[in-house]
Amino acid sequence: MSHVVFFLVPGVHLLDLAGPAQVFSTAAVFGHPYTLTYVAERTEVPTAQGVPLVAGLDWPELRPEDLVVVPGWQAVTLADSPEIGAPALRALRDHHDRGGTVASVCAGAEALGRAGLLQGRHCTTHHDVQDELARRHPGATVVRDVLFTADDRVITSAGIASGIDLALHLVAARHGPAVAAKVARDMVVYARRNGHDAQSSAMFRHRSHLDDTVHHVQDLIDARFDHPLPLPALASAVGVSERTLTRLFTRATGLTPLRYQQTLRLERAQHLIGHGATLEAAARSVGFEDARMLRRLRARAA
């Protein structure tokens, strides 16, 4: 079980907090337990939206596998941000020094900067305060026009809803893209990409739809893409005809079920080849009888 600690600053934006919290609590429902804790420098924390929150004052004992998230807060400029005491900044810094991951949403990057965690690292924040963040923390490399950045266990996101993207990224890194896609589907949100990196998996690229039947079939393919998956069996599993399944799947993803499975096989094979596997070994590992089909798919993708 991993611990996720949210450090709350007065004026915190509810969605900056609730979005990532929902991602991790949903992941827990799907069998990946997380304990969520909320800490602050005072028990009652006012929010930007007027709903007061209650938080603890004591930080739990954290391990390297645990995560600390600093949601953003309401401020016209970062210079107007609330004061953050030395003990809290030290807690952020110490957790990272011990091998833990620290993340921020929106203006929360300012807290990481004050803790010294942006020095020499790439980061981002809300577009309204990106230039100010760069001025206030000249040792940081502020990346514009991305949803989030990840640099040496310091994860920063652009603001508001992008905190969901950040949290989905962390779930994917820990449990695989299929789990993150399942969480995104349950939350009825798009599984979006960083904004400048290539999308990491077809499991994300082709999940930005709301067709439950197609998602169910994708779940089946994701879990067994290296096995034969006849169209009649997939159609039977979701209670539709083969023709209906092909029509629904193509409309939702732009691919047929077979082409989707081949895409997953190709991505996995490319990963194996990049890590030293031969073409033949990679082909067999992902379910091809030999390397001929893999060669064709690679040539088509080139």
Automatic annotation (TrEMBL):
MF term (GO), any: DNA-binding transcription factor activity
Classification via SMART domains: HTH_ARAC
CDD domains associated with the record: GATase1_AraC_1
Domain HTH araC/xylS-type: residue ranges: 215-302
Keywords in alphabetical order: Transcription, Transcription regulation
SUPFAM superfamilies: Class I glutamine amidotransferase-like, Homeodomain-like
One Pfam family, short name: HTH_18
Lineage: superkingdom: Bacteria
Protein name, entry field: Helix-turn-helix domain-containing protein
Source species: Streptomyces aquilus
